Amino acid sequence: MITTTEATQSILEAISPFGTENVPLDAAAGRVLHQTVVAERDQPPFDRVTMDGIAIRFASFAEGLREFDIQATQFAGDPVVTLGARANCVEIMTGAVLPTGTDCVIPVERIATNGTTATIAADYLPEHLQYIHPRGSDYVEGHEILQPGETLSPAHIAIVASCGLGTVAVGENPSISVISTGNELVPAGEAIAAHQIRMSNGPALAAMLTQQGFTNVLHEHLPDDRDTLNTKLAVLLEKSKVLVLSGGVSMGKADFVPQVLKNLGVRLVFHKISQRPGKPMWFGIGPGGQAVFALPGNPVSSLVCCRQYVIPALLKASGRTEASRVYAVLGEDFSFKAALTCFLPVRIDGEADGRTIAIPVATNTSGDFSALGTTDGYIELPLEQSVFRAGEVALLHLWDKP
Known about the structure:
Layout: H1 4-14, E1 20-24, E2 37-38, E3 48-49, E4 53-56, H2 58-62, E5 67-74, E6 88-92, E7 104-107, E8 111-113, E9 117-120, E10 132-133, E11 144-146, H3 154-162, E12 167-171, E13 176-181, E14 185-186, E15 197-198, H4 201-211, E16 217-222, H5 226-239, E17 242-246, H6 257-263, E18 267-271, E19 275-276, E20 282-285, E21 291-295, H7 299-317, E22 326-330, E23 334-335, E24 341-350, E25 356-360, E26 377-381, E27 387-388, E28 393-398
Helix pairs in contact: 1-7, 4-7, 5-6
């Protein structure tokens, strides 16, 4: 068996990068950016007022004026007004262009108006340039704001929109086939016999992929039948860039998946990783460069392997820059005697001192997916160690933030 580190490295070296596509901005959230985003103009593009009130010439106040004649009212989006006499002011709204000839904004709470004049409160001492967001103080025209490799968040979408881009180049949304294998599986909503179980892995894997922006997902259910697997997987290999199978990869008499994949020309990269859960995982590359992940059928194993290997590999193939590692402090003593890397499901608690505490959540074998509903992710405990004390720091893998 290879180590978890070797497994990750082998996958990332073997998987081929996805292509690039242009999508409308409203479809770009969660996708990996494939272009440099350059400022269309200065930001803000003018001296922007940040407070409702009046705009004045500060020198007039410094010379002793506290009462000003209201020359005009200017709203956000209005053409700029030019101040006339030194004793004039302009009623101004947040977001408006600073009127020409003014350099100080007095907030509305500190003035009194009668419709024609505005008087500054006697106890208020304004400062020069206050409540003004200067032109170009965020960035200037031509500045490279975003670089390729970012996963586009709502904040990034705002930046791209501010640069005038209606479409943006992002990583291709690859065609992915999720395949649940097993005679015992019955989809939700269908009649079920006492000896059968509900099909949960496939929907969960598809949901995890979709959550990370991979929405071009097809879910299929195939029986534990060699001929059917051979026929159906051949078709799915033809129309998919990525296959994610669940089940049929261990040592049972009905575990046909490895041999069928070999027969279809899928090159084995590795089979089995020194970890728990998820030791039987299989990975290979298809004859057309397809990435083929065959995950164990036990629900906890399947979800952990998808989060640990499939999602990071797809994000890397999409062009995402490597994410920073996240760590947590173990909240309780824990022992794990097998010489395997342990992926331990945990619930996250925050401490007042800023520490992230990982509380172990027991699962009733790797088939107990119900316990995962109370977890935020899992921590990675190294295979060289068997006893872990509360207070030790461990690598944290959150379910929703690869």
